[in-house]
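Here is one chain, start to finish.
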Amino acid sequence: MEGGRVLRHSQIIVLGLCIGLATIVSSVVLSQGFLKVMKFTKEVISVTGSAQKQIRSDRASWQVAFSRQLPDLASAYQMLSGDLAKVKSYLLSKGVREAELVVSQVFTHTLFKKTGEGYDSNEIEGYRLSQNVTVDSPDVDKVTALSRECTELIRDGVGLNSSPPQYFYTKLDDLKVEMLGLATENARERAQQMASAAGNRIGAIRAAKMGVFQITPPTSTDVSDYGYNDTSSLEKKVMAVVSATFAIE
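Its structure:
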């Protein structure tokens, strides 16, 4: 009888030791797992990467305006029609295709005689009629040359006003994908350099955020929080920025 009590007591002690040992082991496993989670969530490095590229515009848009001012509306319209014919003939002779021309409607502005105080009276003095012709072409060099040479029309009696050409790049969507890839790679290189200085290396990318896209003249340093899209320069500089976070191993 006494021996049975001793045996049960020994079993209880052994069971207690097993439970205690299991608790210690599970605590160690859980704590290691927790440390790994903490390491996964906290040991990261955040950097900004960028990429630049020079591009050449592949489309140009240029507008030329002309006007006539006469006391008689019909006469003004007749002369403006003659000016339009001269402008179109000149552009076509320079290699512009008919499909590249966009002719606007005629804009009419009524002119009133002024009073002694400088205000408009009710008496009509004349009419000012104006019209625009826009050249939209992938031949950017041709458009550039035309914008500089079109003053030849003034010798033909056309009251001309030439606007600076606007230059565009039509493959911008494909370029953005390429530039963002280069900017992300640049961010990875910067992160690796920083981690290597501390004896570490980077792992997988955790997060990435695209910055604004900047398109500026080649020598410009202008940037904008909303992005910059220059249309004044034939040659352009494109810059993409990416903010990225990498794991540290």
